[in-house]
Amino acid sequence: MFVRSLKLVYTLMWFSCVLLSQLEVNAQRDTNPGAQVNDSTTVEPKKDRSILVKDTIKVNERYKLIHPVFDLEFYTKENLDTSVNDIHLYYPYEQDFRQWQQPGNLGQVPYDISLPKVEKLNLTLGIPQNNIYNFDRKNTPFYQNEAPYTFARYITGADQEQLFEVKHAQNFSPLISIALSYKHHGSEGAYRRQEAKLNNIGANAWLRTPNNKYNFLLSYLSNNQKRIQNGGITDSENLFDGSSRFRLNKDTYLGNAQSQSKQAELFIQQSYDIGETKDSLDTKDSVYVSWLVPTFRFIHRFSIETELRDYVDDAPPDDYYPNYFYPNNNITDSVRMRTYKNELLAAWEGRINDKDLGIKLVSGITLLNSRLGWATENTDTTQLRWDRKLNALLFKAKGFTSENFFTKNLKIFSELEYGLAGWNTNNIYWKTNANYQLLKDIQLNFSYELNVRKPDLVFYEYHSFNHDWDIDELKNISQNRISIGASYKNWVRLNYSIGQISNFTYFNSFQQPNQLRSSVALQEIELQTYLKYKHFLHWRNKIIFQQENTSAIAIPKLIVRSDVYYAGKIFKRALEVQAGISCNYMSSFNAFRFSPSLGNFYSNGSNITDQYPLLDLFINFKVKRATIFVRSFHLLQGVPGMEGMFAYPDYPLQDRAFKFGFSWGFYD
């Protein structure tokens, strides 16, 4: 403990020195605005000559030349986010506070506390809890940069918690761009056999022809997650009375289990543009005539996606697993899925006078070919099954309109997917959003979602040492949802939604698939408020009330988050600071249990998970391109009545912990 504390003190001292040196440089710049800084020296400007010194400290505007691209239909360039806001919320399930209940240590499986989402059509295995940690095409963009970009981040905390991330993107020429990403995160955990290690790798390249009509995109993503599975704490009595060392020695259900999951994707996209956008016609009589010439983009995508999950338990206990299907206890279970995806799309973007006309359309077809298999091994037998070969042909279309296309101040987005043949025949996904600017500061919102789809593949068939079924009579899940809302500036936002699900599918208390024959009614009210006093004191609130009429969906009815913080610039405006208190609360609810062998949550019965407010203190700094945060997590633990809490049954929430992290962006 002393050595770990000494390391933390040295780390803080080192970053304090870096911070003070940055403040000194910035103070020099403020007192001598005409000076350039290079290696902590001052260079006087010369008359009629520009001084160019390559130094990250001086590239104040370089980050504006970094353009991540997530939109792979229209190649829309986005601005880089360099805000100091909420940098202490560094895990995905913390960034969307209403969606996840974080587990006992980072890297373990989080619990979804939101209403069921309206899913798109796909061939999906159905073990989604791990995916929140993964690199995918939604969070690993392509880049088109005018300056090289490098980003590095390191975070540390209690229980050997660490996160290391680095990414680099640059244009090798005006026609070639590359991007590389790596992330490692994990923790040993506060309890026995709770270690988690995750490694993600991403790489992509973008090639263009000189006239920019032909574009070739190549991407490879790999995610590797290893977890020690303890099955939860066997006895919660007096669990939080002792020290952290006392909790580390508490008995757990499993003593030899571990799991590993791997996901990988190879993605290729080619596109070719036909047509040009012209904006004027010279009539030689001072009349400016404009007209629309549509531009078409034809896109072909091909991808190979693989998913593998292994579960090993060398000596399973007799009273933990609900079933045994093979005689020997020394077992290894595997489930694997491989999907080939081909897409042909046509995109059209209307423009006039070099400005967005207000409409973008995409349509095409997607062909999916999947192969699903299981392997069970023990000392007596090895059984490999490739029982499922699945195909699907989907039609896809989506469209965007901006203001003034149909009528003034109205924006519409709509997306449609329909199953033409194969596994998803006659399945449908439809989503429409409409935003209307009623007055200058008042906006109205409306959305409708409809989904008719087959349940995930894991509900149809599964073969392992502890789980074995083959079901064909499952009905399609039907879900719809309507939402209406209004907002005033960024001060108040209110949204109300109501929905219904038929044939909802879940895992029952025996860890087997079950489908409700009755309809499930859902409703949600979300209120967000934001108040500010004299531009430095901020108060943000999010309140969610959600309700369902079935025990097959286990979520809290009330979720609250409140942040009070100071935000501003100090030390002659050289240091940007955000410091305050964050309070999170959710009502007690009947959370589902986690099955390590299945990799999913299942119905719990009547074990209520008690809740109390979680209080965090945080301070975030930003000096030039460097950001630093210090955070005290779960500050109230130990207060009478708040000794400790469970994320879900048998899995305690992480103990009170001190977390520290920094990140640095380079734009040279």
In angstroms, what separates the terminal alpha carbons?
A: 41 Å
Shape: globular
Unreliable residue runs:
1-59, 278-291
Count of helical stretches: 4
Instruction: Evaluate the radius of gyration.
Output: 27 Å
Give the overall average pLDDT. Answer: 82
How would a textbook summarize the main sheet?
Answer: 22 strands, antiparallel, barrel
Summarize the structure.
This protein has 668 residues and is mainly beta. The chain has 4 helices and 38 strands.
What features would you describe in this structure?
This protein is mainly beta and 668 residues long. It has 4 helices and 38 strands. The chain has a 22-stranded antiparallel beta barrel. A two-stranded antiparallel sheet has the order 1-2. The longest helix is centred in the N-terminal third of the chain and has 30 residues, at 2-31. Residues 1-59 and 278-291 have low confidence and may be disordered.
Keywords:
668 residues; mainly beta; 22-stranded antiparallel β-barrel; two-stranded antiparallel ribbon; 4 helices; 38 strands; 51% strand; globular
List the SSEs and their pairings.
Elements: H1 2-31, E1 36-38, E2 41-43, E3 68-69, H2 92-95, E4 100-101, E5 111-112, E6 142-143, E7 149-157, E8 161-173, E9 176-187, E10 196-208, E11 214-229, H3 244-248, E12 257-274, E13 281-282, E14 288-289, E15 295-313, E16 331-352, E17 355-377, E18 382-401, E19 410-422, E20 428-437, E21 442-453, H4 457-460, E22 461-463, E23 468-470, E24 477-488, E25 492-502, E26 505-507, E27 513-515, E28 520-533, E29 537-548, E30 558-570, E31 575-586, E32 593-595, E33 600-602, E34 614-623, E35 626-633, E36 646-648, E37 651-652, E38 657-666
Antiparallel strand pairs: 1-2, 3-6, 4-5, 7-8, 7-38, 8-9, 9-10, 10-11, 11-12, 12-15, 13-14, 15-16, 16-17, 17-18, 18-19, 19-20, 20-21, 21-24, 22-23, 24-25, 25-28, 26-27, 28-29, 29-30, 30-31, 31-34, 32-33, 34-35, 35-38, 36-37
